[in-house]
Amino acid sequence: GSIGFVGLVIPHAVRLLFGTCHARLLPASALGGALFLIAADILSRTLIKGQVIPVGVVTALVGAPVFALILIGRRNAR
């Protein structure tokens, strides 16, 4: 589901911003995931007037390219 996908993508994206210190990474991942889902929910309700797009669609449209970029970046780093 969409929450599992957010749980997969957000910690990797946050690690790029905050480094590998777990004392900062865990709370930043939790906060980042919550903010991402809130933004996705707001976007899903306001993108098309009078209709609600499923949150899973919004998280997939935003999260899939981010996840692909993270994977490509890790492959190039090797």
Automatic annotation (TrEMBL):
Primary residence: membrane
Domain of life: Bacteria
Name of a matching Pfam family: FecCD
UniProt entry keywords in alphabetical sequence: Cell membrane, Membrane, Transmembrane, Transmembrane helix, Transport
MF terms in GO: transmembrane transporter activity
Entry's localization field: Cell membrane
Family per record: Belongs to the binding-protein-dependent transport system permease family. FecCD subfamily.
Name by which UniProt lists this protein: Iron chelate uptake ABC transporter family permease subunit
The organism of origin for this protein: Pseudomonas brassicae
